Amino acid sequence: MKTDNKLIGAGLLSAIGASLCCITPVLALIAGTSGFASTFSWLEPLRPYFIGLTILVLGFAWYQNLKPKKQIDCNCETEEKPKFIQSKIFLGIATAFAIVMLAFPYYSTIFYPKTEKQIIMVVKSNIQKVEFTINGMTCASCEGHVNHEVNKLIGIISSNTSYENGSAIVEFDSSKTNISEIEKAINSTGYSVTDKKEN
C-alpha cells in the first residue's frame, strides 16, 4: 500500500509538472508579480512526457488497487479496512485532480479578467498597428497574460496575441500610447519582445 501512495504522489507531481508552465502566469497575475510568469516556460517541451508519465503511473496505481487479492486459506482474522489515503476513493480524487491539472492550459484563460476598452473617439490618422514577435510563450495562458498587461494601457484599441505564432498584433491610438510603452508592458510579463513590425 505504501507503494500505491508513492505512485499516486508521483502521478500528481507529473500532472502538476505538465501544466506548471501554464499555471505560473495565472499565479503571477493573482500575486501581482507579472515578471514571474515565464519562469517555468522551459518545461513546455517536456509536457508530453509528463502527461505520459502521469497516465502510466496512475494507470499502474489503479491496476494495483483493482487487481484481485490472493486468498490465503486459513482461519486467521480478516484484513482490516484500508486507511482513506490507501482507498479507491482517494485514488479517484487524485486521478480527477490530475485530469484537472493536465487540462489546465485549455481553460486557463478564464482566470484573466476581461479588460473592456471604451474608446469614445479615435482620429483615424492616429490609429497604428504593430506586430510584436515575442519569445517564451507556450500556451493560451501566456496569450491571456500578454493581452491583460497590454490592455491596461490607455489608447489600446485591440490586442491579439498568439503563442503558436509567437506574436502579438496590437492596434492603438498613437496620441495616447506608443510602441515602446507597449513593448515595456509585454516585457513586464517575463516574455520578451525580439522584433516589432509596423503594419
From TrEMBL:
Family the UniProt entry places it in: Belongs to the MerT family.
Assigned keywords, A-Z: Cell inner membrane, Cell membrane, Membrane, Mercuric resistance, Mercury, Metal-binding, Transmembrane, Transmembrane helix, Transport
Protein name per Swiss-Prot or TrEMBL: Mercuric transport protein MerT
Compartments, as annotated in UniProt: Cell inner membrane
UniProt topology in membrane: Multi-pass membrane protein
Keyword Ribonucleoprotein belongs to the record: no
Known role: Involved in mercury resistance. Probably transfers a mercuric ion from the periplasmic Hg(2+)-binding protein MerP to the cytoplasmic mercuric reductase MerA.
Domain HMA: 128-194
InterPro entries named among the record's database cross-references: HMA_dom, Transprt_MerT
UniProt cross-references to NCBIfam families, sorted A to Z: MerTP_fusion
Domain of life: Bacteria
Positions of transmembrane segments: 12-34, 46-63, 89-107
